[in-house]
Amino acid sequence: MSIYHFKCVSCTKLMGITEDFLGKQMRCPHCQTIQLLPMINTTGNAEAAPTAPDVVVESETIGMIFTYETPVVPPVTQEPTQEILSFPIGGKSQETSTEEYAAVSAPVEGKDSNAVTTDFFASENTGASQNGGAAPAPWDNAPSITGEVARKRPVGSKSMAMPIIFFSLLSYSVMATAILILVLVRMKTAGPMHPLEYIPDVDGDNPGAKRTKIRFNHDKERTQEIVPAHLRTKIGVAIRVGELEVTPLAVEKATVAVLVSGFSKAEPCKEDSLILRLKLKNVSADQSFCPLDYYFNRKWKEKSRNSYPPPFTLVQFGTEKPEKSFFGGPANWLPLALAGSKKSQSPRETVEDENLDKTLEPGDEMTAFLCTDGDDASAQAIFTHQGPMLWRLQVRRGLVPVGAKEIPATAVIGVEFGATDIKQSPAAS
């Protein structure tokens, strides 16, 4: 098979081809430039470049890399006996055989391809310029005669910053959601404390906190909120709230006497009072407090001028929502700091033998009683009422944790009773 040599129009280096590639688009093995090779006639002269053929990729492989379809070449009427392409150099012609081309064009390991001499065709232009015209524009899909694939520029690796930020935020949101759900579940399981379980202990003769000008103000509606079932008990059944254990002992009907400061003799009430006898025990390990207070069972009338809000201690008809309420007891309350003072316009009153100002140390217990107002004629309806009744009483319960602190608090408990539970007593002592 005949070998033809041409100079690359780009790098001017020598490349050799067989007759099968004449008139086709080829890629320079040195600079990878695609160019159109001319046709060679039987006399060895270059013919005009044919129109660009449509390259069709088939199963045949040229150079082990590129596949293409051999274009149809017009038949040659006369086949030359020996096809040698001669190029004049320095006024002489030089013939290159197949063996010489193999020796010249064999790749040399470790040497630069630019070292190959280019003065072999120094006096001649490229094969395409022999016809006086520049080579047509190359096609991108033309196969390479070297069998090498053009290397693509490596694509830069993607940054991992965005995935890292995304998964960090996702992990944080999942953790925050889980913590919030856990807190809500615990709050729902424990259940909120009823408002009657932690009334601020800031009033009375022996409050658990230092007296300030702060006062817990509440109205009648707040005072008569329904006592929840876990804060209600019956006669003879002990109930614990905070650090205090309360046992209702009996409900009695008797006449009580009120002791006025400055007088040596107590004055009996006009009518009978309903009496609730109690046993109270401090069950804490390191707290001391006064479970009852005269302030809790002070005299209060709804339509009269009152200096203080209605007391939480009262007797009501019905055990749920009050049908009718009877507030406090028969004694007007006055702070100890004002008792006997010229600033006070009214004396301090206490119910005789009521015993509401005793302090309990850890483990101590005591007995005391509460009573209704015997001077209130409307309170006599209690003795004729045949339905269920509830005696609500305010007591101190010790310290209650609020955040990082512990504050003294009170609570309201209810004692259920009926007309059959009321016993007659000669005196309230």
Write the layout of secondary structure elements.
Layout lengths: L2 E5 L6 E5 L6 E3 L6 E3 L2 E2 L5 E2 L13 E2 L3 E2 L19 E3 L2 E3 L3 H8 L55 H30 L8 E2 L19 H4 L8 E3 L4 E3 L2 E11 L2 E4 L6 E2 L4 E10 L31 E4 L7 E3 L21 E3 L13 E7 L17 E14 L2 E13 L4 E3 L5
Radius of gyration: 57 Å
Strand content: 25-35%
What would the average pLDDT be, to the nearest integer? 75
Quick one: how many beta strands?
Answer: 24
- Major sheet summary line: 6 strands, mixed
CATH class of the largest domain: Mainly Beta
Instruction: Provide the low-confidence segments as ranges.
Output: 52-68, 80-134
Short description:
With 429 residues, the protein is mainly β.
Any descriptors?
single chain, mainly beta, 429 residues, Immunoglobulin-like, 6-stranded mixed beta sheet, 5-stranded mixed beta sheet
Tell me what you see in this structure.
This protein is mainly beta and 429 residues long. The protein folds into three domains: 3-131, no CATH class; 164-190; 194-424, Immunoglobulin-like (Sandwich). 10% of the residues lie in helices and 26% in strands. The protein is built from three helices and 24 strands. The protein has helices at 98-105, 161-190, 220-223; strands spanning 3-7, 14-18, 25-27, 34-36, 39-40, 46-47, 61-62, 66-67, 87-89, 92-94, 199-200, 232-234, 239-241, 244-254, 257-260, 267-268, 273-282, 314-317, 325-327, 349-351, 365-371, 389-402, 405-417, 422-424. Strands 11, 12, 18, 19, 22 and 23 form a six-stranded mixed sheet that branches. Strands 13, 14, 17, 21 and 24 form a five-stranded mixed sheet that branches. Strand 22 and strand 23 form a beta hairpin. The radius of gyration is 57 Å and the shape is rod-shaped. The chain starts with a strand and ends in a 5-residue tail after the last strand.
